[in-house]
Amino acid sequence: MTEILPVSKGIAPVNGTHLYYEMAGAGHPFVLIHGGLVDHRLWDEQFQAFAQHYRVVRYDLRSYSMSAQTTETYTLVDDHYSLMQFLGIEKAYLMGLSMGGSLAIDFTLAHPEMVDALIPVAAGVSGFPPSPELMQQFAEVDKLVEQGELDQAVELENRIWTDGPKRAPEQVNASVRTRVYEMNRNNYAVQQQTTIGPAEGAIKAIDHLGDIHVPTLVFVGDQDQPHVLSAADTMIAGIADARKVVIPNTAHHPNMEQPALFNQIVLDFLASL
Asked: What is the pLDDT at residue 70?
């Protein structure tokens, strides 16, 4: 049985905003970054499990959940760097899902000296364009948001990502769907007051994957969008000695759908370093 370790919670003043974070455990730092539909609670099944072995940090990105909104331009890489500096973390294992995985890749390229291992989960690669089919789905979501139909927009995003293109909602764990829906709906409420998103980084990872020289473990769910599966293959082709793990019967949140399997694979990977 996993021991419940004390959790340190705080607010980090960085780059003109405030980022909410949680930290537990001791040992080598291990930072977890959430995706665009969720928040720090994405990692509920991982946080304490990994804290048994490492000093684990999870946080809300700017304008997500418990972190402050923004009134000025920023980059996610700069925010992540400043948070690590604030927490006194010189080097860390880095894991991110979806948008957070793309951030983890970009951060590794920008600050290779601060990353000891990279774990992108259902991640995109900056500079790797979405498929026309996915762009059409994005447009449908945007239209619903513009019409003020936020509940419908959130449900459509659940269909696109949590279910994936090949599964009906009833084939997906109902608790996972509900949790993703609630986090995503809350993010829409939080972000209604800001129109400023992150600026694009100067470096597109698609052109520099060969510059990544840290142990890399790439996760995908076999029911995820074809674009995500292609991005994973692109990472494997571009990053020397990168390994890919496909989690069966999962889509965009494999850590939520198959937490025990996911956790064991991550812990085995890190223990092998």
From this structure: 74
Exposure b/e, 239-270, CB count within 10 A at least 16 = b: beebeebebeebbbbbbbbbbeebbebbbebb
C-alpha–C-alpha distance, residues 258 and 240, integer Å? 27
Q: What parts of the chain have a pLDDT lower than 50? A: none
Q: Does residue 1 fall inside a structural domain?
A: no
φ, ψ at 64 (rounded to 5°):
-115, 135
Domain boundary among 148, 166, 191: 191
pLDDT at 197: 65
Dihedrals phi, psi of 245, to nearest 5 degrees? -120, 125
Quote the pLDDT of residue 196.
Answer: 62
Residues in CB range of 248: below 8 A, 6 or more apart = 221, 222, 258
Q: Is residue 107 assigned to a domain?
A: yes
Residue-wise DSSP of 63-126: TSTTS---SS---HHHHHHHHHHHTT-SSEEEEEETHHHHHHHHHHHH-GGGEEEEEEES---T
Last residue of a domain, one of 158, 191, 224: 191
Give the pLDDT confidence score for residue 193 in this predicted structure: 64
The per-residue pLDDT for 16 is 87
**φ, ψ for residue 238, nearest 5 deg:** -95, -25
Do 23 and 57 lie in a common domain?
Answer: yes
Q: What is the pLDDT of residue 190?
A: 84
Quick one: pLDDT at residue 194? 61
Q: Which amino acid belongs to residue 2? A: T
Which residues lie closer than 8 Å to 95 by C-beta, 6 or more apart? Answer: 30, 31, 32, 33, 101, 104, 118, 119, 120, 121, 266
Based on the fold, state whether residues 61 and 146 are members of the same structural domain. Answer: no
